[in-house]
Amino acid sequence: MSINTYSKMIVETWGTVAKNNKALSVDLWFASSEDTLRKFGWPNVPGFEDESKSDKTKSKEKNKDGSTEIDNTSEDSKTSKKTPGKDNLKEMMRELVEQTMVFEEPAELSKEQKSFRTVTKALHFLYEYHLDHYNFFLKITDKTFVHLPRLLELLSKTTRKPRLIGRPDIDDETNVKFCWNGPGYILSKDLLAIVGPHLPFCLEDKSITEDIALERCLYNNAPTFIGCEDFTNGTGHEFLYLQPDDDVNWANVVHPERQFSDGHLGGWTFANSVIVSGVTSIETLKDLHKADDVT
């Protein structure tokens, strides 16, 4: 499973930079049903739990109006919930999230809609409970490497306003730029503050990809949204995405300063790329981490 391979390797490579240097003020959050806090020391976003694995000692039945009224937990277990243990706090958070995260769902979600729902649920949780804890929110997959110090240096020079930062492309329908979801994207705190309340109600057509769906959600609900932007003080190649079958370029990850030009991205190097996505193997994540230590 990915949580035990790529996610684990992220924690052991660039995740260690965040863990060992608290001055960076970077946290990792996993949109996963697994208890990543216990497994990796980094928390998972509540709301993705597998209901089939829920505590069998507790059962709930719902009235026709959807309210919950029957709780078969024992008096002893109810009393124990007052104890501020890790498990009890996690259960309390799960119930709180269930009460506040109301996402209307169609009977069946497409693959694209499921991907977008994962993003909106995670962002909505961060909006509800951690908006004041962070200035920027980076969304990436677990097959991505991040040069944290360089990323934070660029963000420190980024002016505070509603921003979506990433690798831009044009949405032909809205004529607004969206950010490629392959290499990920960054929402500023100011932008998440505006769109946060609307996230549960954003769901596009089944065929719309996650990145375009997010752009349209922002376009429809954030009046100040101007589309996806590059880093204003960057080179335009900070968000690097290579196809997994691009063996020629991936083979050169151990030569971070080597200049490449493939006709599409223009000139770029691994050393100058802040986000490197489409990683083909955990060995590549290790190589990027080693190269990052050198550069």
Automatic annotation (TrEMBL):
Q: Indicate the transmembrane segments per the record.
A: none
Membrane-topology descriptor: Single-pass type II membrane protein
Q: Does the keyword Transmembrane apply?
A: yes
Keywords assigned: Membrane, Signal-anchor, Transmembrane, Transmembrane helix
Where's it mainly located? membrane
Coiled-coil intervals: none
Localization annotation: Membrane
Q: Where is this region: Disordered?
A: 48-89
**Family as reported in the entry's similarity comment:** Belongs to the glycosyltransferase 31 family. Beta3-Gal-T subfamily.
Stated name of the protein: 16282_t:CDS:1
Question: To which species is this protein native?
Answer: Racocetra fulgida
- Lineage in the entry? Eukaryota, Fungi, Fungi incertae sedis, Mucoromycota, Glomeromycotina
